[in-house]
Specification:
By secondary structure, the chain is an alpha+beta fold. It has a single domain, classed as paralog of FGE (formylglycine-generating enzyme) (Alpha-Beta Complex). The chain is 22% helix and 22% strand. The protein contains five helices and eleven strands; from the N terminus they run αβββββααβααβββββ. The strands form three sheets. The chain has a five-stranded antiparallel beta sheet. A four-stranded mixed beta sheet has the order 9-8-7-10, covered by helices on one side. Strands 3-4 form a two-stranded antiparallel sheet.
């Protein structure tokens, strides 16, 4: 009985430790490993400077990197990316919002987990560094070239994920590389479009600001849009 109690305590302690802010959990889908970062919820000023709104989000997990073409292929059977990028672990691109929903559904079937798309509020909160935020204009710093791939350093190509500096939570590439689909519909437009965040390898630095936002049609497959996973904590 004493041994059982000690074992259960050890398991509880390990689970508690892995759930701390910035800690990492590892998952596997068809032999491909990927990591999720724990983000403690909180309240932050969302939006561009001078037009912010106090916003509160709960705790969640977020992809340490963008979904790679390797992971997408492991789940869907084919990598749809069209860019001849630099590196083996490139972010998947040329995927629509609808494609991303299908990918997540199949990923959940494979893993038994409940992955989902990020809300726009969660995306910006994590990009800013969550409760560890230092108030940077890009995700991880004030110099775009140090934290992400954009028009001035990408040579018109995507690059291997996690090759630039991470942000305060240890999350990579939330500024640059590829735009990332969010779960939210974009308000104020006549036709249904969904939010994309983060900027991409063809953009100027301004497009990669943590508060910048854009939109795209849910069926659109373009080489600058990819995906980052989320799940409830």
């Amino acid at each position: 009985m004493k041994r059982l109690i000690i074992t259960l305590f050890a398991l509880s302690a390990a689970q508690f430790a892995v759930s701390q802010n910035g800690e990492v959990r590892e998952f596997t889908a068809n032999g491909v490993k990927f990591e999720m970062v724990c983000v403690d919820g909180g309240t932050f000023d969302m939006g561009e400077p001078g037009k912010t709104e106090s916003t509160t989000v709960g705790s969640f997990l977020i992809g340490k990197t963008e979904v790679t073409g390797v992971l997408w292929k492991a789940v869907m059977g084919k990598n749809p990316s069209t860019v001849r990028g630099r590196g083996k672990e490139l972010p998947v691109e040329s995927v629509s919002w609808n494609d991303c929903k299908d990918f997540i559904e199949k990923l959940n079937q494979l893993t038994g987990q409940k992955f989902r798309m990020l809300t726009e509020e969660e995306w910006e909160y994590a990009a800013r560094g969550g409760s560890k935020s230092n108030g940077y204009k890009f995700s991880g710093g004030d110099t775009m070239g140090k934290v992400g791939w954009y028009s001035k350093n990408s040579e018109s190509s995507t690059h291997q994920v996690a090759t630039k500096a991470p942000n305060e939570l240890g999350i990579y590439d939330m500024s640059g590389n590829v735009w990332e689909w969010c779960a939210d519909a974009y308000e104020g437009v006549e036709s249904l479009q969904y939010v994309i965040r983060g900027g991409c390898f063809t953009d100027t630095s301004q497009a990669c600001w943590v508060w910048n936002r854009s939109k795209n049609h849910p069926t659109s497959r373009i080489e600058i849009c990819g995906l980052r996973l989320a799940m409830d904590k």
